[in-house]
Write a structure and sequence with these properties.
This protein is an alpha/beta fold. It has 16 helices and 19 strands. The strands form 4 sheets. Strands 7-8-10-9-13-17-14-15 form an 8-stranded mixed sheet, sandwiched between helices. The protein has a 6-stranded mixed sheet with strand order 1-6-5-2-4-3, with helices on one face. The protein has a 3-stranded mixed sheet with strand order 11-12-16. Helix 3 links the parallel strand 5 and strand 6. It starts with 19 loop residues before the first strand and ends with a helix.
Length: 555
């Protein structure tokens, strides 16, 4: 079918938009954020007559995220901080609330002074930058007349550092403070761009972002960020015996693609897999992302309502690609290899049928009992390839919008993490804490492995009615060859139905910043994988109600 799509259409407009972030000791901004706690003295500099009684009369109590605009020059936006700003997440949220309240302004200013004294100056500048840019994000690439005022300039005002003894000491302290804030702001710009790139890819309509188009974007932009990019088409996938990816693609008129990405640190020598590898002392991390550009469910067709948002089913691949674009600029010292497994999942006369048996790379056969549990099939091929690298990775992490069961268990604000190795789970949790992308560890309970048995193949692609997030992870665990491994099920967090602080409506970009932070701080696990991870790890996710097996396990 021929459909008219502008050949100049750009699926990733965020890469061409620039926000200037300036660190200054003082400023005369048009719009200024003023952080106000719920109790105690009000900040200095408010207009005459503004006291607690006046604010209460206007309905402003100082609760977290509440805003009130005070007309004047500058326009002051009061932002409630409840008990005050004590964490990076609270500052990111507060700046995001400010940015949304000042939606008509292209230039904003935030004072990082007494209100943020509990935070390291570099960290404060970083999260303030992230909060402002991500809150103003809007995907308007297909709008004739975009209504969102783009953010053009953000000024971070850092107060003078107190230094006793001499003016020289005070000047030196101020210079150190400004330098730290500038470094933090630069880091915030990189991480905000990373999330925006993932959001762009997720928000792009599926006909505009086929697997082939995704590969073109990676080939065109990846090298700009220090990545080696290799793309595999249908014939090459067949030569590699990638039966999972090809089986899911069987009903589509759009060809599949596997996109392999490599990041090699500047001082690490050759890339992993190139003979000598990236240096014996250089950690090697493999990331595998699910890239289902649209998921109809295949022959196991989804109900119409369940297809809404299925363009977001490639957010795992988007997160891996976006995260890897940040590694060189952030100075990551680990070598990272990414595998993006991309296709759509469509019904047709050539589709994989319920009852068909697919052969995953390496020879494992899988009976397809539900074609809507397709993500694990494409991911299995990627996981096997990751284990076959000439220099095997020290750990593998996969990320996928995998199960409705994870949504039922954790709601829409927290992703599930499962792992065969406690160190991998711990490092993922640390990255989640740093980015405020919430995850919760579920048990990799091998007692549920029985549910994956098949009468005609080595495995079935779905388990029973319950514990679908766990059985999906157990399925993936079959293909990591005992390597330390973690699995992020981001089905709960792939999209936001409304603007909420720095999370904008549409694709959230969840996992992009998390994986970037994870790769940046990655250290090779030293303990042996605990294949029978503690069934109590992370606590109980609770009951998942009466969700039917096919729906709970669907991807």
């Amino acid at each position: 079918m021929t459909v008219a799509i502008d050949p100049d259409f750009n699926p990733v407009p965020s890469l061409s938009r620039e926000v200037t972030v300036t660190v200054a000791n003082s400023a005369e901004p048009a719009v200024l954020a003023v952080f106000v706690p719920a109790e105690g003295e009000l900040p200095d500099g408010l207009p005459d007559g503004i006291d607690r009684d006046a604010l209460a009369a206007a309905g402003f109590t100082g609760k977290a995220g509440q805003t009130l605009l005070l007309p004047g020059a500058p326009l002051r936006v009061l932002v409630g901080t409840a008990a005050g700003i004590r964490t990076a997440a609270e500052l990111r949220d507060a700046v995001a609330a400010f940015t949304r309240a000042a939606r008509e302004s292209a230039e904003l200013a935030v004072e990082l002074g007494d209100a943020t004294a509990a935070l390291d100056p570099a960290l404060a500048a970083q999260v303030a930058t992230e909060g402002a840019i991500l809150a103003r994000y809007r995907y308007d690439a297909l709008l004739g007349e975009p209504k969102t005022v783009p953010l053009e300039r953000l000024t971070l005002v850092v107060g003078g550092a107190a230094a006793a003894g001499s003016d020289d000491a005070a000047d030196a302290a101020e210079a150190d403070l400004a330098e730290a804030a500038e470094l933090g702001a630069e880091r915030g710009l990189i991480l905000a761009r990373t999330a925006a790139l993932a959001r762009d890819l997720g928000n792009t309509p599926p006909r505009h972002l086929t697997a082939a188009k995704f590969a073109e974007i990676a080939e065109r932009t990846g090298p700009d960020y220090g990545l080696e990019v290799e793309v595999f088409g249908r014939e090459q996938l067949a030569e590699l015996d990638l039966g999972g990816l090809l089986g899911v693609n069987a009903g589509s008129t759009d060809e599949p693609r596997m996109i392999k990405l490599r990041y090699t640190p500047a001082d690490a020598g050759s890339a992993p897999g190139d003979g000598d590898g990236a240096g014996a002392g250089t950690p090697h991390l493999a990331l595998v992302g699910k890239g289902i550009t649209f998921d109809s469910g295949g022959i196991s067709l989804k109900p119409a309502g369940s297809m809404q948002g299925m363009k977001f089913d490639m957010m795992g691949a988007a997160a891996v690609f976006a995260a890897m674009t940040a590694l060189r600029e952030l100075g990551a010292t680990a070598a990272v290899t990414g595998w993006l497994m991309c296709t759509d999942n469509m019904p047709s006369g050539s589709s994989t049928k319920v009852g068909d048996v697919l052969t995953i790379r390496g020879g494992t056969t899988v009976e397809v009992k539900n074609t809507d549990a397709e993500g694990r099939l494409v991911m299995a091929d990627g996981l096997v390839l990751a284990t076959e690298e000439e220099r095997r990775p020290d750990a593998i992490v996969d990320i996928a919008t995998l199960t409705g069961n994870a949504m039922a268990a954790l709601g829409l604000g927290t992703a599930a993490v499962l792992a065969n190795h406690d160190e991998v789970a711990t490092q993922l949790q640390q990255a989640a804490d740093a980015t405020d992308e919430r995850i919760w560890r579920l048990p990799l309970d091998h007692r549920y492995r029985e549910q994956l048995k098949s009468d005609v193949a080595d495995l079935s692609n779905i388990g029973g009615q319950y514990a679908g997030a766990i059985t999906a992870a157990l399925f993936l665990n079959e293909f990591v060859d005992g390597l330390p491994w973690g699995h992020l099920d981001i089905a709960p967090t792939m999209q936001s139905e409304r603007d909420e602080l720095w999370r904008s409506t549409g694709a959230t970009g969840f996992g992009a910043r998390l994986l970037a932070e994870f790769a940046l701080d990655f250290t090779a696990p030293v303990a042996e994988a605990n294949g029978d991870a503690d069934a109590d790890a992370g606590g109980s996710a609770g009951a998942v109600g009466d969700t039917a097996g096919d729906t709970a396990d669907a991807e």
